[in-house]
Each structure stands twice: as structure tokens, then as C-alpha cells.
Automatic annotation (TrEMBL):
Record protein name field: Uncharacterized protein
Domain of life: Bacteria
Length: 84
């Protein structure tokens, strides 16, 4: 029998000014999951060991297209959407 998925003990959705939504879920084992609506994203910054003095981890994702670099201009994409 397969393991049952662990249910999050905390979930919250944040709506960004442009309408995209981010959902953050925390699980009993200490893991955290992020779900982001919108374009594909690329991981552009990660400090998973964090700063020992501050006990923090930092992650940054940026909009990107498959095969492109992270410098993809999201503002231009939003303008295209508004013109359509």
C-alpha cells in the first residue's frame, strides 16, 4: 500500500498586485511547499544553509521561458497580456 500524502497543517494564499497567487503550505515534518501561479519560473537565487546568525533560508524565483535565461522581462509580458 502506498503512503498517504501528508496533509499540511498550515496553508495560506497570497494574491499579488498583478493577480498571480502564491500558496504556502507547512507540513508536520517541517517541510514547506510553495505553489506559484503564472508563467514558468526559474530558481535564480538560493541560500539554503542560510545565515547561522539569523537562522534563515532565502529562495528567489524569476519568470522565465523554457530555454531562456532568467533575465526574461516579465513587465513586457504583462503589457502584452493587457493589450490582448
Amino acid at each position: 500500500m502506498a503512503d498517504q500524502p501528508v496533509k499540511a497543517h498550515f496553508s495560506e494564499t497570497v494574491t499579488l498586485p498583478d493577480g498571480r497567487k502564491i500558496r504556502v503550505s507547512a507540513y508536520p515534518d517541517g517541510s514547506i511547499r510553495f505553489r506559484v501561479d503564472g508563467l514558468p519560473y526559474v530558481l535564480t537565487e538560493a541560500y539554503f544553509s542560510g545565515n547561522p546568525e539569523k537562522d534563515q533560508a532565502i529562495m528567489k524565483i524569476s519568470p522565465g521561458k523554457q530555454g531562456s535565461n532568467a533575465a526574461y522581462n516579465f513587465v513586457q509580458e504583462l503589457e502584452k497580456r493587457n493589450l490582448s
